[in-house]
Specification:
The complex is a heterodimer of chains A (404) and B (257). Chain A has 15 helices and four strands. With 404 residues, chain A is mostly helical. Chain A is elongated. In chain B, 40% of the residues lie in helices and 25% in strands. Chain B is globular. Chain B has a single domain, classed as P-loop containing nucleotide triphosphate hydrolases (Rossmann fold, 3-Layer(aba) Sandwich), CATH 3.40.50.300. The chains are: A mainly alpha (404), B alpha/beta (257). Chains A and B meet through helix 1, helix 9 and helix 15 of A and helix 3 and helix 4 of B.
Chain lengths: 404, 257
Amino acid sequence: MNGIKIVFSKEMKRVFKDPKMIISLFILPVLLMVLIYGLIGFLTKQQVNEEEQHVFQVAIQNAPADLETSLKGFLEKSEVTWLSSSDSTEEFKAGIYSGDKDLLVVFPADFTEKIVSYKEGDIHPHVSIFFNPSQANSNNAWSGFTVMLSGVYEKALVAERVGDAGALTAFTVDDYDNPESIIMNEEKANAELLSTMLPYLITMLLFAGTMSLGTDSITGEKERGTMATMLVTPVNRSSIVLGKLLALTVLVIMSAAVYIISLSVALPKAMAGIGGDMSLVLGGEQIMMIAVIILSLAFLYVALVGVVSVYAKTVKEATTYVTPLYILVIVAGLFTMVSPSGERSVYEYLIPIYNSSIALGEVLTGDLTVMNFGMVFGSTLVIAGILSGIISKAFNSERVMFNA
Amino acid sequence: MIEFKDLTKIYKLNKKQQKQMKISDTTKIAVENLSLTANEGEIFGLLGTNGAGKTTALRCLATLLVPTRGSVSVNGFDTVKDAVSVRENIGFLTNEIKLDPQFSPRYLMGFFGRLHGMNESEVEVRREELFAQFGITEFQDKKIEELSTGMKQKAAIAVSLIHDPKVIIFDEPTNGLDIITARAVTDYLQKLKEQGKTIIMSTHIMSEAEKLCDRIAIIIEGKLTANGTLAEILAQTDRSDLEDAFFTLYQKHGKAV
């Protein structure tokens, strides 16, 4: 026990005495989070403002006389070029292609006559609409115009035809944004969004912190020759291993905590820029579950990187072997983003890394049961324990430690 | 007391190592049937060329390597069966073993002292003694990476002796040291010998071995070719100094240069 404490203390000191380590583990993450998400928020807000303030560049050819009145709401926000049938539309189409113009609407020259003289069996006049779906403004112009064209103008024309506007409607339905229709737990709604993003970010950030620390602590010491000085002391080899792994786990969690706190400050600010709300209030039990899951996951990562590091001959080699593991971690995290929430099979709570990721998400939404929590924690700890045992065994192997 | 009994250490070579050494064998015999004893109150010298097997023998003694055949013991404790007891009794220093560059000699003395089960006051007393002996006081708080080669070596020697071991294993202890410091080290080894410690050291410096060692073993290509006092070795080889004696043995037992 004493050996574990002594080695643990030295490992912690080694990191905190190194300014480069402190910067990369604790200061850089804060700067990165604030910068990245601040930039995202700023750019997103700018884009939203630009779209809101944009005046649609619209051309309408052969516009019926009563169109302007019916589409007043849309046309007020637009700069309209009225084209007659003799005017060419090619220049405007070129403008849509290049992104300078948004929408071209072409009514047939005989539109009004066909509407007025319509009888059963006649072919309806066709209105052609030209737009650029890859341009946000053009897209918005299309949806704004077509909604008003079908929902207002066409309805008005048909109402004139049948004489009774009420005959066009069999029943009414609540609008999407009718406040009385909405039955929503706002917190849970926010949590649903966070539960797809945060677990992925947390699992990824935890591993990123482990990679550099772990390879230096084990392979780095072997390479520098400082490991052997410890191995000739009477301290149990497994105590040396545990001291290192525990110190690494604590450091990784500290680094991750810095990331998470920075994220929790920077992300809502980014979302506020686009009118989103990422506020979330967690209960004591949820916080405890999150802390325990992160702790066990950090230990698993440290043990995983430790196994790779102990068998690698150089830090460069260790980093090469650890990188594919990082990709695996990212994939596991991505899976939780795209996998459907709801009822899961038992085995999902036993797959390492993936289980921690889904458990973190379910804690946020309040869906994680005690049994599933226990399975995630237990299985993660068991695997980490097995890997720690492998590392201890390797520490006793002269071939592994001294390339003998 | 140190006892080597028919120590043999065979390394398995991988393909890369075979290619590097330009041999087709899959094994390399580093040490073969080495038997010798170093007694209490004695400085025992191990001489040999690079790759002769000295470091392998010392590493087996220090419990870092496991003998392929034979055994090594320290004060009756077998290095394989009682490795922890052996480590309690030894101080080990070799060029390949380094001190953590981030820390100061002061911190490292404390760290290794605690690993050897010493309490703070014991560490403090011993630290001051060794600092004074090796002139480390002036740079005790500097990081190892900031020290010169000589300073690093002094710090490494001091760290290996922090727990006042009964058996001292030094692999070229004066390597990189200036003449003044080298003398301080050899004087200290004499002092330790007078205290009844068992000291085994390897060296390339013949004059050092002649002056310091009570008995000498000469290892050539993993095999013991001479073992005894300086006078006995000179008589065995019919030479007047150790260097000539060494070359005589090398010409007899070694591969052609």
